[in-house]
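#struct-queue
[09:14] JT: dropping the first one here, sequence first, then the C-alpha cells:
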Amino acid sequence: MNKRKIINDPVYGFISISSDLLYDLVDHPYFQRLRRIKQLGLADVVYPGALHTRFHHALGAMHLMGQALKVLQQKGHAISEPEFEAAQAAILLHDLGHGPFSHVLESVLLQHVAHESITLVMMKALNRQMEGRLDLAIQMFEGTYPRKFFHQMVSSQLDMDRMDYLNRDSFYTGVIEGSIGADRLIKMLDVSEDQLVVEEKGLLSIENFLHARRLMYWQVYLHKTLLSAQAMLTQLLQRARELSESGATLFATPDFARFLHNNYSLEDFDIHQDLLDSFNGLDDNDVWASVKGWRTHSDPVLSTLCTMLLNRQLFKITFYDAPPSEALLADLRGQLLEAGIAEEQMDYFLVSGETTNWAYAKELDPIRVKMKGGALLDIADASDIPTIKALTKIVRKYYVCWAKNVSLRG
C-alpha cells in the first residue's frame, strides 16, 4: 500500500505525508477524531467561516515543521531522517488531548486536567500500540531530547503550532490582520547555541508575527461575543452536571455521560484503562446533540440556556478596565430578579470574569535574534520599534455578561 499521500490544503496548497509512520498516525482513530472538533469552538457565532477543524490545523503544523526543518538543513545543521520524522510526528500529535470546545470542557468536566497532559497520555498509548516508534517524538514533545531546539519548534513562542493557527484562523475568519507570512518567517529561522533563533534580517517578520498574534486575540480569540457564547456553554454544562449529580436523568451519548457524571483526574487515565477510549469518543457532536436534547428538559435553567445558545440569543456582555463594582452587579441582579430569575438561579445568568492578552511573554520564553555579528539578542532589545516592548506587558480586561430580556422556559 502506498502511504505517501498528498493532501490539498486551502492555506498552503499541497501538503505531503512523507513517511509510513506519519501516514499511520493520520490514519489512527485518535487523530481522525480531530476531524470532528472545530479549531475555534464557538467562534462561528461571530465569524461564520470559522468552521475549520483541529485536523486541518495539525496537518498544517506538520507541513510547516517539514518546511522549517529543510531550511535548517540547508543552513548546515545536521538533522537525521529519524529526527526529521519525529519532529513532524510530535507537532502532528500536539493537539490530540483537546476535547470538544476544549477550554470550556476543561473548566467544567475535566477540571485541573490540562489538554497537554492528555495529549501526552495519548501519545504514550499510541507508542505502545506502535511498539516504540514514537519514542523520539515523545522526547521532543516533552523537551527531554538533548537537542532542545526541536522542542522549541513544537512548543514555544515561535513554534509551528502558532505559525499555523495564526495563518489558518486568519484565513477562515477573514481577519486578514492575522496573516503572518509564514514562508518568509520560516526562511529566517536558524539554530545557535542549540536554540531556535531568527536571523537579524527577519526582524520585521517577527514584529509582524507578534502584532498579528495580539490582533487575533482581541479580534477573534477574545472577541466579546465569543466570550459570551463560551460563558453560556460553560453555565449550561455546569447546570447539567449539577442535575446529573442530584440524580436527574439527562440525555447524553455514553462517552459524554461518563464525563458528565464523574470527576476524573489525570491519574484516573492510568487507573481506568478504558477511560482514554471514552475520551477519544468525545467530539463536538456529543455536546451539540446533548444541547439539542436538553432544550426540552424539565429544568427551566438548563432548557432556557440550551434554547438561547442554539438560537444565538446570547448574553449581553460589557468589558471594563477594572473589576466591576458591587453596585453594578447588584443592579444587574435586580434586573434578573424582575425578569423572574430566582436568587439560586442567578449564577447561571450573570457571569463575571477577566481575560488577558500577552502578545510576547519575554520573561517566560524569549525569542532570540541572531545579529550579523553572531550575538543573540531578545527581540525586544534587537528591535528599534517601541511597540515591541509594549507587547511584553499584560493587558487585562474585565467583563460581565448577563441574560438580557431572558424568559425562563417551563
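[09:21] JT: and here's the second one, same format:
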Amino acid sequence: MFSPYYKASGRGDPVDHASLNVALYGPHSRWTMTERPRGAVVQERDTLAISPSAVRWIGDALEIDIQERDKRVGIPWRRRVRGKVRVLPEALNPISYALDPSAQHIWHCLAPRARIEVVFDEPSLSWTGRAYLDSNHGSESLEEGFNVWHWSRAHLHEGAVVCYEGTRRDGSHFASAIRFDRFGLPESAPLALAAPLPNTLWQMERKTRADRGHASLIKTWEDAPFYARSTLSSKLYGEQVVAVQESLDMRRFTSPIVQFMLPYRMPRAAG
C-alpha cells in the first residue's frame, strides 16, 4: 500500500511487491518492512508466505510466523526479528463496507474483537491481550481516492466500535461510526463529537470521535511524515475506553521528498 517501488512500477503487479510489516514499540522496539518479489511469494487457500515469513489460518486462529530483519535509518546492521503471533477472533463479521460512492475502496472488519498471543525469540518478549483484525482492498490507489483519513477503534464492555472519517480526493467529506455486538455483527451508530488531538512532531493533523468531543493522548507510537498511530483515552457511548487511533495524509505520501525517504525504511530484497 505504501511501497515506493510499487508506486514507481505503475502498480501493474502487486504480488511482485509483497511485504510483512512488523512494528514493535517500547524498550525492544523493532521495525521491519522488507519488500520481496513475486518469486518469494506463495499463495494458498489458508496461507500467504512471503519468504521467510508466513501468515496462515490454523483452525480458528490466524498465525503469523515472523522471520525478518529490522531497518534503522543510518545503521547498516539489521537485527533479527523472530517470533510468532496468534490472533484468535472472538467473533467474525461477514459484512464489508465501501468507503466511496463508486465502491473502489472496500474496508472489511474481519474480527472487531479478538485475543492475541505474542512470543518473540528475538527480541525476547511475550504478552497476551486484546486484538483486532481488518483488511482493505480497492481498484485504485489510496492517493487516487483520499486526501486525509482518520480512524480509531476501541473495545467496549460488549463488542467494539470503529470510527473513521476523512476527505476524499474530490473534496467530499465522509464520517461514520460502526458498533459491533458480541457476535461481531455491525450496525451504524450515532457519530460522537469530533475530538481534536495535538499535532505530531511532523505536524500531522489527527482527530478522533468521543463523548463531549474530548479525548486524551496516551502515547504516540508511530510518528512519520504522512502517518501517525497513537493510543487514546476517552469516553464512547458512556464507556471509558482506550482506543487505537491512526491518521493518514496521502497528499504527503505522494510528495517527492517522502517518496525519496521511504526506501531507507522499506528496503527491497533481490529475491
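[09:30] RK: nice, looked through the second one.
[09:31] RK: The longest strand covers residues 105-122.
[09:31] JT: good to know. The chain has a mean pLDDT of 95.
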